[in-house]
Amino acid sequence: MNKHLFAVLMACCLLFSCSKNKENIDVSVIENQAAIKFENDVLNFHTIRSGEKVTGSFKFKNVGDHDLVIGDVAANCGCTVADYPKQAIKPGEEGLISVTYDSKGTHGMRVEKYVTVSSNTNPSRTNLKIIAEVD
Fold it and tell me: How much is the pTM?
């Protein structure tokens, strides 16, 4: 019985010591990576006419110490389309994510649309918001 208890205790000690080492490795990776900072995370088109297409952009900077790679920019509806840099953004460099909102079929309401930026940062996703009053 004592042999089994000793074996279980040794296995637990080994498991916990491995987990702690993994945490240390993860922290060092987080400190040395790309980081994205947006000038603004909300784009307000104010009042627009129904059926009007409007375009604006979100300016950002890589404030990390590794190349920033944007893997995807996805809108939460088909009425919003985004264009983004496909090449890596070096540390300290800036870029733009351009978005076009099509208000076709929207009448007399305030709209809020979201765009999700997926990149090699931590966290890996950043949400941006588009606002408009449609007449």
Answer: 0.75
